[in-house]
Amino acid sequence: MDLTSLSNPLVTLDQLSSSSSQLDGLSTELENSIRFGGVQLTEAAGVLLRLPQEVIAQAVVIFTRFYTGPEGGSFLINPVKDVSAASLYMIAKISAIPQTPRSVLNVYAYLSLTAPKSRMDAPSDRQRPDPESHYLTTGAYLAARTTLLQTEAMILRALSFITKVVVPHHLALTFLQTLGVLPSPPTSKSRALAGRTISHLNTGLFSPQLLYLTHQPTALAVAAIYVAAKEIGVNLPCSEWWEVFDVDREELGFLVVGLGSSRLWAEQESRKWVEGKCPLTVEEIMLEMERGREVQ
């Protein structure tokens, strides 16, 4: 099966081994935490904008790509909120559901007001302000719009204007149909299998191993199907079916472990910041780095 048209540009070993943030003195552990918080922010904004998960996932990949490698952005220079907003705006603009700068910026302003002290201590719906009631003033909007467009241009330059992002979600559903385990009409078990597969793909976006940047979407789809089938108890073909989708056993094994550990890592990361909000602004990050030096 020729799947070359469904491939993404992948990061190199040099880009994985060193980032601008690390060169600026950020530890790998804190860098992973900030990236995790940035992905959460992008996901939350996408949901409030009612964007499809495919568009949100594409924006997350662009956000993650930008901060990868020594030529990429640095968390100590390029604010997470600005890059997250520009990534979502840029990807939505070339989708079937483009968003105005005003809509995107209003959502991020709303999220900045409702950010919980801890990721595990989100305010109740009764405590949250009405999203419809929050609206940037003209002056604040014009300033934020300028920053949004400047950040978008900066991301495009950093990525050499390569914005192609193929995500594995629809591929996974197609592969399930090809394997004959997603019949029409679907059964309760096949629905559970499809749902668990998509869930693993969504969780993989948070992986500290940057699975979406190091592996092609076909491989991610195959691995998510494999893990989900084991969990649901669905029998897949006895032959090495993954080879049909151009995935070898070694890559499949790595991704199965990576996807399987992503949820546990995300839960641990949320508990890690139970005493305080994960630092996302440049000022918060610098303060966290100073605390770390004091502890040492």
UniProtKB/TrEMBL annotation:
GO terms for biological process: regulation of transcription by RNA polymerase II. This is Cyclin N-terminal domain-containing protein. One of its GO terms (molecular function) is cyclin-dependent protein serine/threonine kinase regulator activity. It comes from the Eukaryota. InterPro entries: Cyclin-like_sf, Cyclin/Ssn8. The lineage of its organism: Eukaryota, Fungi, Dikarya, Ascomycota, Pezizomycotina. PANTHER family: CYCLIN (PTHR10026). SUPFAM superfamilies: Cyclin-like (SSF47954).
